[in-house]
Amino acid sequence: MAAPFSWPIRVYWEDTDAGGIVFYANYLKFFERARTEWLRSMGIGQAHLGERTGGMFVVSETAVRYLRPARLDDELRVTAELTEAGRVAMTLRQQALQHAGGELLAEGTIRIGWVDAATLRPARIPPVILQTLNTR
Amino acid sequence: MAAPFSWPIRVYWEDTDAGGIVFYANYLKFFERARTEWLRSMGIGQAHLGERTGGMFVVSETAVRYLRPARLDDELRVTAELTEAGRVAMTLRQQALQHAGGELLAEGTIRIGWVDAATLRPARIPPVILQTLNTR
Amino acid sequence: MAAPFSWPIRVYWEDTDAGGIVFYANYLKFFERARTEWLRSMGIGQAHLGERTGGMFVVSETAVRYLRPARLDDELRVTAELTEAGRVAMTLRQQALQHAGGELLAEGTIRIGWVDAATLRPARIPPVILQTLNTR
Amino acid sequence: MAAPFSWPIRVYWEDTDAGGIVFYANYLKFFERARTEWLRSMGIGQAHLGERTGGMFVVSETAVRYLRPARLDDELRVTAELTEAGRVAMTLRQQALQHAGGELLAEGTIRIGWVDAATLRPARIPPVILQTLNTR
């Protein structure tokens, strides 16, 4: 089985809180950066796609477990792995790990729908995306 | 049954993204503001408590569903309701609603543990907090 | 002379960094919340105005000095004072102070222009805003 | 003259606001990432240094001009250039540019002091840092 897509992320001051560790809400940002780069690695650019189709991805559900803290200057590796792709939504499994030792820091399940950018109503994921996802 | 604790939150530019709506990760911030004020309403100040006990709350699990978008200038009402309080963790149910119409925007379950601030190892929630929570 | 407009802001975990203090970039957010409420206090709602005029405010210059640190749970008072209002830009002087003791934490000068929301090109500030500002 | 240190930064959803562009406060984050990597490129790791010396950098002044908007998916190049290094503070000039066309998006002057991490009182920058900075 192929290893899931993985993206390096460095922890900066902006990511930490007064507990001395990465603020938990920021793992959602890290997951999104990795998802964005995973899409880009398949030729899917969200800004470009938005202009062309008038739609955009919208996160509809997140479930995250925070297992170990990360700290300033840590180098993380964040994965993105498609677990389900339907006509109106896709689901990914994502993990944040220490790059050096591989310790699992946080892991989550993210469900993403497609909406019309003007009305924000749910819509079908453009075929070009579904085809790309399904041929992977 | 008593209504859950509720805290008003206004949507500013900082909370939005290029989709024109509140960035989903920011609901975790909104939920935390409401939890913090819920604790404060019971006399529990986290900064003070940290100094006195050497410990702090750490979020260990979040599960959030995003149902409707919120936009710049919207006034939200964010609730915090304790569903479980054990010796090492507590769980809350939280909702973000439109203040005016009451539409549900996002809802989540947040699990929070207590750790020693220096070692970040799990520890028992200080009795003063548990007592306060259980007498509510 | 009248006291400048002032808005209370509480420091939450999200505002702090691993130094144990408010992350300096976040004062720009605090200043903006106070500016937004200052405009709202004069009947100017930015979301509504954007829909009606097709334009929006864009910050073009910020100069901030950070004098004393703020910490988790601190209650701040953030001011907004118009120092100049021209046809294409306005300038404000803003301060963040400890609510209790009044110590000055940060102060800045913020210059804000008006742009067409679609083209992002500079445009004249709508007369309704200038009139409101100048009759204050 | 050597080109200043430069670091690539990609614009993600988290960086944008409802105006469709990068939220201006986030340029301070971009500048800090580039400064952190500039320090790291000279062998100065801030987390490690904090543990060893008990001190940390604190930003004391920022002056930024925002010239052109950046958007989702844009790839920026952010520079860091030391303009002054004294015993208690250093000053940098930083720019954010479009990677492709080189258009200048924002530029700023950032003044950074050194403080004792426990007391937050100003202190002398550790000699190891000053030596490293001055031999560049």
Overview of the structural elements:
Four copies of one chain form a homotetramer. By secondary structure, chain A is α+β, with helices and mostly antiparallel strands. Chain A has a single domain, classed as Hotdog Thioesterase (Thiol Ester Dehydrase, Chain A), CATH 3.10.129. In chain A, 24% of the residues lie in helices and 40% in strands. In chain A, a hairpin with a 3-residue loop joins β3 (75-85) and β4. The longest helix of chain A has 16 residues, at 26-41. The first copy, chain A, is elongated, with a radius of gyration of 16 Å. The A-B interface holds A 19-21, 24-26, 28-29, 32, 56, 58-66, 69, 117, 120 and B 19-21, 24-26, 28-29, 32, 56, 58-66, 69, 117, 120. β2 (55-66) of chain C pairs antiparallel with β2 (55-66) of chain D, so a sheet runs across the interface.
In short:
Four copies of one chain form a homotetramer. Chain A is of the alpha+beta class and 136 residues long. Chain A contains three helices and six strands, in the order βααβββββα.
Labels describing this entry:
alpha+beta; Thiol Ester Dehydrase, Chain A; 136 residues
**Main sheet characteristics of chain A:** 6 strands, antiparallel
Number of strands of chain A: 6
SS field, number of helical segments of chain A: 3
CATH homologous group name of chain A: Hotdog Thioesterase
Please tell me the overall pLDDT of chain A. 95
CATH fold description of chain A? Thiol Ester Dehydrase, Chain A
What's the end-to-end separation of chain A, in Å? 12 Å
Which two chains have the most extensive interface, and how many residues on each?
A: A-B, 22 and 22 residues
